[in-house]
């Protein structure tokens, strides 16, 4: 029988942590899944370790794809090119699933799912068991991504219908940048379909010092064009107005960073962008000040 869900893991030099994800997949109470590993240019022992697991694992299929390093969003693009199951879920290389996560997901989808939904969203927890951010209200059955993003702080575990995700453009890729925020596509999908709520812990997360979650400011500085794409979408999709205005201000800041003189012309909300220029300039100056302070500290 064809597996229903693809669990994919983007990884880059995580041979020392990837085993936690693998061991959690071996413990799943429902093994109706494929594990797809997208190696984003690792130079450690990742491939050798995965080869060994592929040879020894008999409970589920493991697929391994190696690519030139391009960043998390390019790994997501490639994963969805190769996924052909009904559902798809990303589990990072330093995280691991709850032992019954796949069972919970598939039972919830079989009971409530359908073409009217983009997928599902569940909870992440720290390794000590504490929920990341806020859990959902007990009576909440479905919600839009934008409301989840605004009202329930902290990372969540998103499971999307593969055909829905594939029906939208791939994440934009920019030369010399390694990140377009994943929420860029979540906002696009949000315009059409809601997500079913699973108010249970599906994944345990650990934020490593060199992980993307702990380096968001540096990521913003290194990937301004990727973040600009997100700001353009969130100016349209966010609510209420003040969140749209914050996105417009961040759009101005990013445009200054890359010296984009056509930023007003390219903005989907031109009047709002003009009004946001003073705040965007202040944001840019603060960001550059932070950068100089870090540089000065490193030279002491």
TrEMBL record:
<dbReference type="InterPro" id="IPR001173">
    <property type="entry name" value="Glyco_trans_2-like"/>
</dbReference>
<feature type="transmembrane region" description="Helical">
    <location>
        <begin position="271"/>
        <end position="287"/>
    </location>
</feature>
<dbReference type="InterPro" id="IPR029044">
    <property type="entry name" value="Nucleotide-diphossugar_trans"/>
</dbReference>
<feature type="domain" description="Glycosyltransferase 2-like">
    <location>
        <begin position="6"/>
        <end position="166"/>
    </location>
</feature>
<dbReference type="GO" id="GO:0016740">
    <property type="term" value="F:transferase activity"/>
</dbReference>
<dbReference type="Pfam" id="PF00535">
    <property type="entry name" value="Glycos_transf_2"/>
</dbReference>
<comment type="similarity">
    <text>Belongs to the glycosyltransferase 2 family.</text>
</comment>
<keyword id="KW-0812">Transmembrane</keyword>
<keyword id="KW-0472">Membrane</keyword>
<protein>
    <submittedName>
        <fullName>Glycosyltransferase family 2 protein</fullName>
    </submittedName>
</protein>
<keyword id="KW-1133">Transmembrane helix</keyword>
<keyword id="KW-0808">Transferase</keyword>
């Amino acid at each position: 029988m064809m597996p229903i869900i693809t669990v994919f893991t983007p990884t880059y030099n995580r041979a020392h942590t990837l085993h936690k994800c693998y061991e959690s997949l071996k413990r799943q109470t429902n093994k109706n899944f494929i594990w797809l590993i997208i190696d984003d240019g690792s130079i450690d022992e990742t491939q050798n370790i995965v080869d060994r697991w592929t040879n020894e694992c008999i409970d589920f299929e493991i697929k391994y794809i190696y690519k030139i390093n391009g960043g998390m969003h390019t790994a997501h693009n490639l994963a969805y090119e190769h996924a052909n199951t009904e559902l798809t879920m990303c589990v990072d290389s330093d995280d691991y699933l709850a032992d019954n996560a796949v069972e919970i997901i598939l039972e919830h989808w079989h009971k409530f799912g359908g073409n009217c939904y983009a997928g599902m969203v569940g909870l992440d927890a720290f390794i000590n068991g504490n929920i990341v951010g806020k859990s959902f209200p007990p009576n909440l059955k479905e919600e839009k991504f934008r409301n989840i993003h605004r009202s329930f702080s902290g990372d969540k575990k998103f499971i999307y219908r593969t055909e829905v995700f594939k029906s939208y453009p791939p994440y934009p890729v920019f030369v010399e940048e390694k990140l377009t925020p994943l929420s860029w596509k979540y906002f696009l999908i949000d315009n059409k379909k809601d997500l079913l709520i699973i108010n249970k812990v599906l994944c345990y997360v650990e934020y490593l010092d060199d992980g993307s979650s702990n380096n968001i400011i540096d990521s913003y500085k290194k990937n301004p064009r990727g973040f600009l794409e997100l700001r353009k979408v969130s100016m349209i999709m966010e609510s209420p107005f003040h969140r749209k205005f914050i996105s417009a201000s961040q759009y101005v800041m990013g445009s200054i960073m890359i010296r984009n003189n056509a930023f007003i012309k390219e903005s989907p909300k031109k009047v709002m962008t003009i009004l946001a220029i003073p705040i965007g300039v202040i944001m840019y100056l603060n960001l550059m000040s932070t950068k100089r302070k870090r540089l000065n500290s490193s030279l002491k």
